Amino acid sequence: MIMPWKNISWESPSNIAVIKYWGKYGNQLPMNPSLSMTLSNSVTRLHLYYRPAQRKPSFAFRFAGKEKPEFGQRIRDYLKRLETELPFLPGLDIRIDTENTFPHSAGIASSASSMSALALALADLERMFRPKNPEEEFLPGASRLARLASGSACRSVYPGWVEWGYDPAVQGSSDEYAVPLNHRVHPRYQTLFDAVLIVDPGRKKISSSAGHLAMNTHPFRDARIEQARENMGNLLKSLQRNHRKSFRTITESEALTLHALMMSARSGFSLLHPRTLLIMEKIRQKREQNGWDMCFTLDAGPNVHLLYPEHERAQVKAFIHDELAGFCEEGQWIDDVTGRGPVKLA
């Protein structure tokens, strides 16, 4: 008798890192600690359907109602790797449906939102098969599962500000999973807006995985690890004490360093676009003229994240409309803000 499908559904957000994770070792472990802000509107909704397999277990994956063989194979391989620690997986038929609220390759880490949503669903499934697991282990466990799929995804299981990577100054921090830091953040930074300016929505020429791999032989690897650790300590102080200039300086330096590392790798490459540079210069000019608190960061691509406080919202939106949208692909930009973290839907 074929059993009916059961369903677990989660909505999980993307995040934008201000201290960048670039380079890894071992089993998806970071060379340096990273710090990110979880977003609110840029989310993946994932529905995981499961039932006991009758014969050979089946697997299916759809994105926005369509089969995506390449990404589906990535998820199938990920589930296969998890069979040792989630031994109930080989006995299940699994079907996964996902959708994003933002365009793919829009300068937002879709793997962070999608893989964190999947990890939360798997952690939920584990809770059903292993009900004695302590509740306080749920989110760290989901973060660890997410890390095994996509490093940045491990930070998306928590709201607000999140650190991943061992840091002696942060109690409970680990290379294995992320930890929440909102309790250490000044109220002004509890709400920070992120305007994602879409310079080029196309697929990146070089994947993030290839970029991480290039750090293994990078001539500046050790210096970068030391720099990231120093920047982490200073940025945490800025977030705690509301040191605005320091926050802006470190955030922009980290963004530029990320792309400098790409260009200075042994097989150097660039993911920046000429319009990326123009937008960054416009932001700095406007900030100098008006004394605003806005600053920029970059993901591993050409699109610009414009970060700004709530009290500057009207001015910054007008600035984007009047002076920045013309540098964006068809005027596209995404309006986002600090988020409250994942939500269980079913």
For the structure shown, list the relevant keywords.
8-stranded mixed beta sheet, alpha+beta, Alpha-Beta Plaits, 4-stranded antiparallel beta sheet, Ribosomal Protein S5, domain 2, 8 helices, 346 residues
Descriptive account of the structure:
- By secondary structure, the chain is an alpha+beta fold.
- The protein has two domains: 6-185, Ribosomal Protein S5, domain 2; 190-337, 2-Layer Sandwich (Alpha-Beta Plaits).
- Helices cover 36% and strands 24% of the residues.
- It has helices at residues 69-81, 110-129, 138-149, 208-214, 221-241, 244-264, 274-290, 313-324, and strands at 6-19, 24-25, 29-30, 34-52, 59-63, 66-67, 92-100, 161-164, 178-180, 192-197, 295-298, 304-309, 333-337, 343-344.
- Strands 1, 4, 5, 6, 7, 8, 9 and 14 form an eight-stranded mixed sheet that branches. The chain has a four-stranded antiparallel sheet with strand order 11-12-10-13.
- Helix 2 (110-129) crosses helix 3 and helix 5 (221-241) packs antiparallel against helix 6 (244-264).
- The longest helix has 21 residues, at 221-241.
- It is globular.
- It starts with 5 loop residues before the first strand and ends with a strand.
- The model has no long low-confidence stretch (mean pLDDT 94).
Mean of pLDDT: 94
Helix proportion? 25-40%
The radius of gyration computed from the alpha-carbon positions, rounded to a whole number of angstroms, is 20 Å
Strand content: 15-25%
Question: What is the level 1 CATH name of the largest domain?
Answer: Alpha Beta
Topology order in helix (H) and strand (E) letters: EEEEEEHEHHEEEHHHHEEHEE
The CATH topology assignment of the largest domain is Ribosomal Protein S5, domain 2
Number of helices: 8
